[in-house]
Amino acid sequence: MSGVNKDIGKVEVRLSWDPSPLGAPDSDLDLIAGTYPADDPHGAPAYLVHFSRRLAPDGTITLNRDSKDGKGLGSDEVMTFEPDRLSAEYGRVVVGVAIQQGGGRMVFGDVAATGVQVVAGYKELSADDFSAVADCTAAVVGEFVRSEAGEWAFHPLLRGFDTDPNTFARTMGGAPS
Ligand SMILES: [Ca+2]
Questions:
Q1: Rounded to whole angstroms, how far apart are CA atoms 87 and 56?
Q2: Most confident of 7-11, 21-25, 55-59
Q3: What angle do CA 89, 91, 97 make, to 5 degrees?
Q4: Distance CA 80, CA 10 (A)
Q5: What is the pLDDT of residues 14-48, one digit of tens each?
Q6: How far apart are CA 19 and CA 164, in angstroms?
Q7: What string of DSSP letters covers 155-169?
Q8: Could you say which DSSP state residue 50 is in?
Q9: How many angstroms does the Cα of residue 13 sit away from the middle of ligand 1?
Q10: Helix extents (H) in the chain
């Protein structure tokens, strides 16, 4: 899915995957959101939201559901985001997914039934299955950008990374090289 969606209101990001086969290391995928300063939108994140910090300092982003293994029905990780509540000092929010590497190297292609969906109300802004980044350990799935007029827009994208989750979280907002 491509294109830019404006006037997006409250957003939900949903991540799902199937558990590893019996005897294999658990597959632990993590939704990560990073918020960036308006005057340095591709620099270091002002803050991150993920499994170990599930609420943004300003309350605009919440990780509502967290999974370490993909077990259970429905979405395994769910994050909500309210762009219109963000302070004017922030101009960009990046959403990514990283795979924990504690049980040995694991890439998207090793994980069954991966899927990520970004929705605003009943409108789907993007959906992807990570097949285009099957050899990667992490990926950016989209970014929210505030225009000079103050309007937020969502840009779906899929950009693969080959790093551990901590490095990914620090670098996922950088400009593509
Ligand atoms: Ca997780």
A1: 12
A2: 55-59
A3: 125
A4: 7
A5: 999 999 999 999 999 999 999 999 999 999 999 99
A6: 20
A7: EEEEEEE-S-HHHHH
A8: B
A9: 14
A10: 165-171
Domain boundaries, the chain: 5-162
Q: Which of 41, 45, 51, 29 is nearest to 170 (CA)?
A: 45
Across the range 135-140, mean pLDDT stands at 98
Cα 150 to middle of ligand 1, angstroms: 33
Instruction: With a cut of 50, say whether residue 1 has pLDDT above it.
Output: no
Q: Which residue in this structure is represented by tokens 């899915």?
A: 1
Question: What is the distance in A from the centroid of ligand 1 to the CA of 51?
Answer: 7
> CA nearest 161: which of 132, 124, 133?
133
Residues with CB in 5 Å of ion ligand 1: 28, 30
For the chain, what is the mean pLDDT?
94
Cα–Cα dist 61/57, whole Å: 9
Q: Which CATH code for domain 5-162? A: 2.60.60.30
φ, ψ dihedrals at 170, nearest 5°: -75, -30
CA gap 127, 141 in Å, rounded = 9
State the distance from the centre of ligand 1 to the C-alpha of 59, rounded, in angstroms: 21
Could you tell me the distance, in angstroms and rounded to a whole number, from the CA of residue 18 to the centre of ligand 1? Answer: 12
pLDDT band at 177 (very low <50, low <70, confident <90, very high): low
Cα 94 to ligand 1 centroid, rounded to whole Å: 17
